[in-house]
Q: What sequence folds into this?
């Protein structure tokens, strides 16, 4: 047979010889999910379909109390683990500590939107379990001492650290008990305050400092205002009135002997006294 193309190699006796591909016939090793050891005898093991795991007969136990499951002790699958009935109820209906992932039987502590054993909730600064009040800041929790030292704002009034409720105003922070009227020292229970020269005031003392107490009734003016320059005072428009008839002097008035009059009444006063000439003035109405 001369040289030429071949489709396969010939074996003995001229029969076609086909090379079989090599195969790996090594059996897959099966491991018990309970003891992590090899399962040698399949008759000594079984598969739990709900968990998709293999177990030796004696290794299929509650993951909490280690009791062997049987007809009298049924198992309940949960999150990839097998529980007896007692511990399943504890796991499902009892809060779990975010620190150790175990059930909390007594005295849970709530922080950062999670639940903790008291001994597992530690300060982000000193790393010690927090005793007493705790403080949250930027996803961390602090004991009172470290919060005051590292995180807490300083009160603008007393210069001490602020722990607890804070008032932010006038570009600073204050203890609730420190944010008070700069003149009389009263607080602001309705959360309303007035500012004069960067200090907080109650309504009455703000208007006193601002010269916006009415010269007639003595009450604060907030809105329309009659400004009387010669007296250096401001009035509610209805309070700025004629000294005789009490008609509001919203346009012009006459000043005579320290009293202001309307045009009708100044005639009677002036004619009876004739001591000095009355001055005609115009009322300046503004808003404050």
A:
């Amino acid at each position: 047979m001369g040289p030429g193309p071949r489709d396969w190699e010939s074996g003995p006796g001229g029969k076609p010889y086909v090379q079989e591909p090599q195969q790996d016939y090594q059996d897959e090793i099966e491991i018990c999910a309970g003891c992590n050891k090899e399962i040698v005898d399949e008759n000594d093991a079984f598969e739990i379909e709900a968990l998709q795991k293999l177990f030796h007969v004696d290794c299929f136990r509650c993951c909490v109390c280690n009791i062997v499951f049987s007809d009298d002790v049924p198992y309940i699958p949960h999150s990839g683990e097998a529980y007896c009935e007692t511990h399943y109820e504890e796991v499902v209906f009892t809060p779990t500590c975010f620190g150790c992932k175990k059930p909390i039987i007594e005295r849970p502590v709530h922080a950062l939107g999670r639940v903790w054993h008291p001994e597992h909730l530690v300060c982000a600064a000193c790393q010690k379990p927090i005793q007493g009040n705790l403080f949250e800041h930027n996803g961390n929790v602090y004991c009172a001492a470290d919060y005051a030292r590292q995180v807490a704002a300083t009160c603008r009034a007393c210069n001490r650290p602020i722990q607890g409720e804070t008032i932010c105003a006038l570009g600073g922070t204050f203890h609730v008990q420190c944010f008070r009227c700069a003149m009389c020292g009263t607080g602001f229970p309705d959360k309303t305050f007035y500012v004069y020269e960067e200090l907080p005031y109650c309504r009455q003392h703000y208007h006193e400092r601002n010269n916006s107490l009415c010269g007639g009734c003595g009450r604060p003016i907030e809105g329309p205002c009659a400004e009387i320059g010669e007296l250096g005072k401001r009035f509610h428009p209805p309070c700025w009135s004629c000294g005789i008839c009490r008609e509001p002097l919203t346009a012009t008035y006459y000043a005579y002997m320290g009293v202001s009059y309307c045009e009708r009444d100044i005639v009677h006063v002036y004619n009876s006294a004739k001591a000095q000439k009355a001055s005609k003035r115009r009322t300046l109405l503004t808003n404050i």
Summary: Residues 263-273 form the longest helix (11 residues). Confidence is low (pLDDT under 50) at residues 1-14. The first strand starts at residue 9 and ends at 10.
